[in-house]
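Sanity check

After download, print the first record. It should look like this:
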Amino acid sequence: MRIDATPTRVRPSEALRFWAILGWISFGGPAGQIAILHQEMVERRKWIGEERFLHALKFCMLLPGPEAQQLATYAGWALHGTAGGVVAGLLFVLPSILVLLVLSTVYAVYGDVAAVAGVLDGIRPVVVAIVVHAAIRIGRRTLARPAHVALASVAFVGMLVLGIPFPAIVLAAGLVGMAGARLWPGAFAPRVGGESTSREPASTPARGRTLRLIAIGVALWLVPYVALVAWRGAESVHAAEYRFFSKAALVTFGGAYAVLGYVAQAASGSLGWLTHAQTVDGLALAETTPGPLIMVVQFVAFQASWTHPEGLNPFVSAVAGALLTTYVTFLPSFVLVLIGAPYVEKLRDNRALAGALSGVTAAVVGVILFLATILGRVTLWPRGSGAPDPFGLALLCLTLVALQRGRVSVPALVAAGGVAGLLRVAWPG
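Expected structure tokens:
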């Protein structure tokens, strides 16, 4: 069987059922979501080969935006063309949009609720364990050479100790990987151990298609903005959110955590939309929902529009701001993936590109471990020092054991963590 070809033709109805379910079970942040995609599409259903999946993952990691959602869009395109990519990408994020709208409304109306805080306290250690486990799994596949291990280590130390921004990490890793693949191919070449080299012919990109997609993407951004300005005015909070989050969407390399500092700094500072504490609460809520963690920007826009309704009903203003922000956040992801997907297929055997992408993937493993370290520090030491929280430590270790044995699904683990946190609040001590 050819590893990189689709072994059997997938019926559109079968794919539609899968995408509809996937959006509701995609917990664990980008690392956990990528692991779910790999398990379901490569290992279980065998819709996409291992080599093709990893190559697409590297491509998505080079793009701004949520890589898991982009990977789902790419997979949908690979199975059923442009329409398949749009459907897969939309269904991947729709559940998180709906769930976070509900949670944001509850937060705005009821504020700090002990039961909600308890659920979040139980979920956080589970999420940390999921990220650690996914980083290990991805690292086993992508850290093919000692040079890749070195890149991952440098990325981890660079972010943790030196505070190097993620875009700089990506650029440096890509350049090192590209140069290494040319000058020292034995040290940097990606390993495809056991993969068959027989494959379907790569599709040939059409220039006309690319230009049409670019034009459609520009129109899809511009027309709603013109209508919004006509409705609310160019200086309204909704127009400001549309412009600000459009810009943020183009610099979200590395996912939500890479851009969260930028969003929090502006939203809590010069724009005056919400406090730092509210931004942290939004991140916690986004971590409890399925789908991309970048959905935290929807929470930020919801709260900003709720606080500044400017003549509208607060709920109507908040929903409008949230949906507009979500729209401009994901629009570039769809356009970039659908434009670039055929080129990825054509360039799969390009040595320099393969080296650059393998370098970026290796660095991202280090970044994921860095994020796990930061999350673990906040989760296990909520007071900042002293002994680690026994409750959080126990949940983290139990989750890692369950993930290692592979007998419990990610959604079940997240639900169990939430229940444990709620019980802790109900029966303290």
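If your output differs, re-run the checksum step. Summary of this record's structure: The mean pLDDT is 79.
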